[in-house]
Design goal:
Layout lengths: L6 H10 L9 H41 L9 H25 L8 H19 L1 E4 L4 H8 L13 E4 L15
Antiparallel strand pairs: 1-2
Length: about 180
């Protein structure tokens, strides 16, 4: 008989048995393993969703910026400018919060989060940002028609761009 791994199946099997479960018993250990596995799977799922949503934020920003323009492709410098303006929007939000904050008061949690976000975005830009390849005309067309879902991003070509790049890389990067 196959071993049940999911918490739902294990609890169903354990509830069928008569009597109480002993702490050092086989069924208790099986139930404990299933509970730990279920928590781990939930955590991994949330991490994956969070990672995907973070990657989609810049793709959404790129789409909103190129939506009104009629260019069929963009240069490396133009893509760098888009990334810089993406980071700049967080800096503007931080400046507004700092203006609202009275002098002598501790900084708010929202300010701390924005400062960390800006620091992280700057670091990612220094190392390399995974963004849609706007030098490719087909990717620009698809990005303009994009509906905002993660599944539709598989049609885009992605490229890694860093602050100190002089030319576009030859090979594109898959979005994970």
């Amino acid at each position: 008989m196959p071993i049940a791994h999911s918490l739902k199946k294990v609890t169903k099997n354990v509830s069928k048995s008569t009597g109480s479960i002993h702490i050092k018993g086989r069924k208790f250990k099986q139930l404990n393993r299933a509970a730990v596995r279920d928590k781990k799977l939930q955590r991994k799922k949330l991490e994956s969703i969070d990672k995907k949503s973070n990657e989609l934020i810049i793709v959404t920003y790129f789409q909103s910026q190129i939506q009104t323009e009629t260019q069929s492709s963009y240069t490396l410098d133009e893509m760098k400018e888009l990334i810089t303006s993406f980071i700049q929007q967080y800096k503007e939000q931080l400046e507004e919060l700092e203006k609202e904050n009275r002098k002598g008061r501790p900084i708010s949690t929202k300010q701390k989060i924005l400062q960390e976000k800006i620091k992280h975005q700057e670091h990612v830009f220094d190392t390399s940002y995974n963004v849609p390849d706007l030098s490719d005309e087909e990717t620009v067309k698809r990005l303009r028609a994009w509906n905002g879902t993660t599944g539709a991003t598989t049609g885009f070509k992605f490229v890694r761009i860093s602050r100190n790049m002089k030319q576009l890389p030859i090979n594109e990067v898959e979005m994970t």
